[in-house]
Amino acid sequence: MNRVITTSPLNVLTNNAYIILQTYRTIIEDITISVPFERITQGATLCQNLSKKIVSQQGVLGIMTQTFRKTYEGGDLVASEIVEENLLKEPVKEIIILEGPDDNPNQVPQIGYNCTYWESYVDNNVSASAEEKQWLKFTMKWESGCNAESNKHSYYKGLFQWDPCLWYEQFPNDNIFDGKKQIQRTLAKLRAGARPQYMWPAVYRKYVATYGELSWLK
């Protein structure tokens, strides 16, 4: 295709007029492209670091052909448009199964925010000194509101707001939302030398302001 541009009327050639002849050519070009596959993750975990990913279905790229109409002015491409697409092969989704700690609050009795219940449990069912019991009751009240099913925080869970990675690294078979287990494990951790000012810093500062330093930490 040719295009004529001139400063003269089309049917009359005047003196000093100029004529530009622009030549266009159009080609049809087919290309084959890969179609990306979707990656789906199934399952949930409370700690990514203790989880593993298992590919249950391998993803496979799809194949598509695209037909382009390309227009050139001289040797320069001035227009390109897709005029047809054909999907030759559907992509296959990749499915990844996430395996790791996946306990949830619905797996334990639904007691909710209930300091009366948990304080009574500590007083009557936990073998501990009066000072240990006082610290346990104070800490669970201010950490979670005495709610063993506490799951609102992104990183901390349960009655004493444990970090799930720290919890499951040490107690892989214990549900973090089991309040009785949290009391048992927290007391054992305290007796083993855990420093509450590092594990529960804000609440421990409040405890010290109320009752003073724990006797064995003075």
Automatic annotation (TrEMBL):
Start and end residues of each G5 domain: 20-102
Record Pfam families: G5
Keywords: Signal
Signal among keywords: yes
InterPro entries: G5_dom (IPR011098)
Protein name: G5 domain-containing protein
Lineage per the UniProt record: Bacteria, Candidatus Dojkabacteria
